[in-house]
Design goal:
Structural class: mainly alpha
Number of helices: 13
Helix content: over 70%
Number of strands: 0
Largest sheet: none
Strand content: under 5%
Radius of gyration: 19 Å
Order of helices and strands: HHHHHHHHHHHHH
């Protein structure tokens, strides 16, 4: 039945599945922050994150798919990816899941803002307006409810910035390494970083139930990224990427049923502005002419 679907439909389904899997993993990660520091989470989760890659190698019958053609750039991307992962975990410690993810979703908007000066890509006034609207959304989310919590919001903002630089490096690798190779080196970097943190910040031996959760989270991380990468292979980013924002709806439901989090109207409005700005930017990029006219 899946074979009869169009490439675009396959891409959308892969993106939806990848988004739901990744958000479920984020919920497990937030749950584990109550007992484990970020380095422990990266290490224990990282041990199991290679399972989807190993399966992919077995299916492809080609070990070389994890080889890199540009070690320097690959390692830079892996470093930025690991830093992003650390700050993602830190973002979940004090903020509700949906709130943290809404701010982190500022990354595609930051990417548009920085792609002009750093990648020499043309960004027209419409997308600049969308960038402004996206940042306005963050200000609405940060509207103090009790005061003194601005520092908590700074963490996901830094996360979004790190993710932006990670994606800028990824763009520069277009036509080079395979997605499996990029993902493999990122997982290696995360695992090593987590291991190095244990002697410094301490290590807790996980219980069997926690180990099962770490195994689920690690497998989900690898599977989710592979699904999202496959989605982009099936269809263009302008078609499939908007479905990433389903994560916010799913995260809000998880946050309500597990932690009792209920976002106020300011946070909902701010998240809506970020989502709207992000989708508009994706739409305008999809409409960009081959000649690269400014839109």
């Amino acid at each position: 039945m899946f074979r009869n679907l169009t490439e675009s439909t396959k891409g959308v389904l892969c993106m939806i599945a990848g988004t739901l899997v990744l958000t479920s993993q984020d919920a497990i990660t937030k749950w584990m922050t109550a007992k484990y520091h970020a380095g422990e989470i990266l290490f224990y989760r990282g041990i199991f994150s290679f399972i989807p890659i190993i399966i992919l190698i077995i299916v492809a019958k080609n070990f070389k798919i994890i080889f890199t053609k540009n070690l320097k750039t690959t390692l830079l991307r892996a470093f930025l990816g690991t830093a992003t992962s650390i700050f993602v975990v830190l973002s979940f410690i004090q903020l509700p899941l949906a709130t943290a993810l809404a701010i982190i979703f500022l990354s595609p908007i930051m990417l548009t803002a920085l792609s002009g000066p750093l990648l020499k890509e043309k960004v027209g006034w419409r997308r600049w307006v969308a960038v402004f609207v996206g940042f306005l959304g963050v200000l609405l989310i940060m509207r103090p409810s009790g005061g003194g919590d601005y520092l908590y919001y700074a963490v996901p903002i830094v996360t979004a910035l790190l993710a932006t630089f990670r994606d800028l490096v990824t763009r520069s690798m277009k036509g080079g390494d395979s997605s499996a190779s990029i993902l493999f080196f990122s997982m290696i970097a995360a695992l090593i970083t987590g291991a190095l943190s244990l002697p410094i910040f301490g290590a807790t031996v996980p219980s069997l139930s926690d180990l099962i959760l770490f195994a689920a989270a690690g497998t989900m991380v690898g599977l989710a990224h592979l699904l999202q990468i496959q989605a982009l292979l099936f269809a263009s980013a302008s078609i499939v990427s908007p479905f990433k924002y389903l994560s916010l709806v799913y995260a809000a439901l998880i946050g309500y049923f597990i932690w009792g989090d209920v976002p106020d109207e300011w946070k909902i409005s701010g998240a809506a502005l970020i989502v709207g700005a992000g989708i508009f930017i994706l739409y305008r990029e999809g409409q960009q002419s081959p000649r690269g006219n400014s839109l």
